[in-house]
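ERR on first pass: missing label on line 2. Operator R.T. fixed the label and resubmitted. Corrected input:
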Amino acid sequence: DAGVIQSPRHEVTEMGQEVTLRCKPISGHNSLFWYRQTMMRGLELLIYFNNNVPIDDSGMPEDRFSAKMPNASFSTLKIQPSEPRDSAVYFCASSPRDRGDYGYTFGSGTRLTVV
Amino acid sequence: SQQGEEDPQALSIQEGENATMNCSYKTSINNLQWYRQNSGRGLVHLILIRSNEREKHSGRLRVTLDTSKKSSSLLITASRAADTASYFCAIPSGYSTLTFGKGTMLLVSP
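pass 2 clean. output:
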C-alpha cells in the first residue's frame, strides 16, 4: 500500500483565495482525521470522519473551513477565504478502527503558506 | 480534552547513548501511543501500550506506563544519528480520536 497520500505537498496562496487540500486514506481504513500543526499550537485535530461521516468537527476553527469525504477513498479540506493565520502544515491520517486504540497512519502533509 | 505533556522539550545526546523522554497526563486512559516525526515529514506510529501493560519493547525502543503516576516513558537504546526527530505521546480523547503533546526534539550527534 502507498500509505496515506496528500496533495499538494506545498501550497502558496494569496490571502482571500480558496485553498483545497486533498487526502487519499489507506484502503480499508474506516477512520480519517485532519490535523493542523503549527509551532505555537502543536498538532490540533480539526475533524474526524468515520465511514465517510463527519463525527467530530469541533476543532474546525471557523466557518471558513469545511471538509468533505464523498467516498471511502477521498477527502478534502477547504479554506475559503484563506488568511495568513491559516499558514500551517495540514496532515491527514487514517486508522482501521473507529476507537482510539489503534495507531494512525499519517500522510506527508501539505505545507500551506498564505501571503 | 486532555493532552499529554512531554519532557524534556529538547534533548541532545551522542550516538550510542540512551535517550529517555517522558509523558505525563491528567485523567484515566485505556492506552497511550508514541509517534516519531522526522523534519518535514508526517508522524510515524512507534508503539501503543495499553493500560493493563507496564512495559513494552520494540527493537531498540522500550516504553513504560505507570497509571498510578499517570506517566509514560520512551527509552531509545544505543541511539543513532537517524533517531534525530521529534517524539510525541498521544492520548485518546473522546471516543475515537487522539490528542498529541508538543513533543520532545531529540538530536543525536555522530
